[in-house]
Design brief:
3 helices, single chain, elongated, 4 domains, Elongation Factor Tu (Ef-tu), domain 3, eight-stranded mixed sheet, 28 strands, seven-stranded mixed sheet, mainly beta
Amino acid sequence: MANQFVFVNNFLTTVGATFSSTATTLTLSSSAGLPVLAAGQVMPITLNDAATGLISEIMYATAISGANLTVTIGEEGTTAQNWAVGDRAFCDFTAGTVAPISTINNVQLGSYSYAVDSGVANAISIGLNPAPAALTDGMEIRTKVAATNTGAVTINTNGLGAVAANGITGALAAGTLIAGNPYTFVYSSSLAAWVLTGVDALNSANATNATNAPNATNLVGSGTISSTTTGGAGLSVSTAGTVTGTIGSGVTGYTQALGTSNTTIATTAFAVPGYSHGSSGYEKLPSGLIIQWGTAALAGTVTNTITFPIAFPHAALNGSVSQNGVYASVVVSVNGLTATTMGVYNGGGGINIYWTAIGY
């Protein structure tokens, strides 16, 4: 595991007790400013002789108790020395401590968050360099998996323990991760799990959970896709995503409702969510959002009710109106929204308006 270096600004003191070239405990004359080291952390210490200023040695402090430091000697190619009371001791950057610091090139290459999987099917094991001390929320890793998964997957990062790896719908279905392919995961502390990102996450559910799949190649997993038709021999999908079976000639397939999941395969109305273009009409967007519009003649000094061309399946979110023509001193406003209607108050005489409503 790579060292996690800890630095102290302006830390300069002297050797407090004679130190031999084979010792492992360095006593300083002062403990002021010394940090508390956690497991895996080290503090670089450079010693320099007071007599000539020409002799130096780098040590790594692995534990600190008062002014006593547990050290490893002769680090970074320096020679272990005998040190006298009064020789200088300070914390500073060294070649070995600077080397692990991110460079622009390494960031571009993504080398700090990438590691090849050395595990087996369903149990990914990677070793990042430098090694993380813990898994933190939003932490990202990328790996080229060693084996195609056959079920739920875990990831063990630098020996921090096997943690579940999920897709957007939960545990990964068999065949979501393909041997030799790279994948990206982000850690969620609230889920205590790695979450697969990108288009692969959309294919992580079993085929029976496929949502608005435009074609059979987007179905991953095994199971039967039903056909609510007559004259058809039934359809099924294999783990490779191949649909088998036939639909009888002249049969009208099931039409999938927008934004819902169903095991039934559709032969109509997947590609275009739905629309009606005219002076009054609507447009259904792939996200499930629906925009409706129209014109109306309003009676004066009352709330007029406008009925939408189609009902919003869930709710109307917003409505707006504008005058269709030139009218003096007229107040028109939206006064109530439902899934099927919009109330429009007209504070003046009879007028014509344009109206728009948005919902889902």
